[in-house]
What we know:
By secondary structure, the chain is an alpha+beta fold. It has a single domain (3-137), classed as endopeptidase domain like (from Nostoc punctiforme) (endopeptidase fold (from Nostoc punctiforme)). The chain is built from 3 helices and 8 strands; from the N terminus they run H-E-E-H-H-E-E-E-E-E-E. The protein has helices at 3-13, 33-43, 67-73, and strands at residues 25-26, 30-31, 77-79, 87-92, 95-102, 108-113, 117-122, 132-137. A 6-stranded antiparallel beta sheet has the order 3-8-4-5-6-7. It has a two-stranded antiparallel sheet with strand order 1-2. Strand 6 and strand 7 (117-122) form a beta hairpin.
Amino acid sequence: MNAAREQIVQTAMAWLLTPYHHHACIKGVGVDCVQFLIAVFEECQLTSGVVADGYAQDWHLHRSEEKYLAGIQQYARQTATPEPGDIALFRFGRCVSHAGIVLPEPRTVIHAFAGVGVIISSLDGQELGGRLHSFWRVVP
């Protein structure tokens, strides 16, 4: 694993067990899945100045417009061969509405899951199974 990918994974792991809190971004206190991605990739200096405008907790249930996906597309490119540090996108409701960071362990991601917090999950497990949409790469 190259240095950039290792840094992404280590930075993400430092958030492990941070409680879920909609629209928050304080390590150890609260974070949601959007703010988690922003914090990790900004700390790794792979993005900067990313702003996630106000969004309701259930926004994905009432839309067909791919807003989350459009945000990811600004900073990443799709890949069919995910590596540690890449982003996994998931569909909940009508559109892509959740993401996690791919870990070195096969088919696992770290993500901020609603009602739980930052956890490690299997792509085939109870939380995410059957919801995988695609993988995206930020690492240059």
